[in-house]
Automatic annotation (TrEMBL):
This is Helix-turn-helix transcriptional regulator. It comes from Nocardia uniformis. Pfam families: HTH_3 (PF01381). Residues 41-95 form the HTH cro/C1-type domain. InterPro entries: Cro/C1-type_HTH, Lambda_DNA-bd_dom_sf. PROSITE patterns: HTH_CROC1 (PS50943). It comes from the Bacteria.
Amino acid sequence: MSHTRWKTLRERKLTEGYTEPTEVAETRREIQLSMTLAKAVYDRRVELRLTQADLAERAGLTQAKISRIEGSDTVPTLPLLAKLADALDATLNIALDSDDTRVSFTSHHTDAA
């Protein structure tokens, strides 16, 4: 059987005309936003070959705080996001749209190939 024919329960319900309650949809959106940021922080940290402790020291935070951010257990404030971007030597780019959210860090340095 082709895996492309498999659908999640949510997808099946949506094709059958089911609509999620507003609270559920809002919670799902918040979780997705948090997870998108968490992945961007993790990916950039790994790209720089930093440990959570290294990043925490650079940003003036605790390792536990970095862990909570990467685990999407906390919602960082704008000043904290600025500290992270600086510590990751990058510009933080956030694009929010109703259907699409993109979070990325753009390095301040470009590699001369």
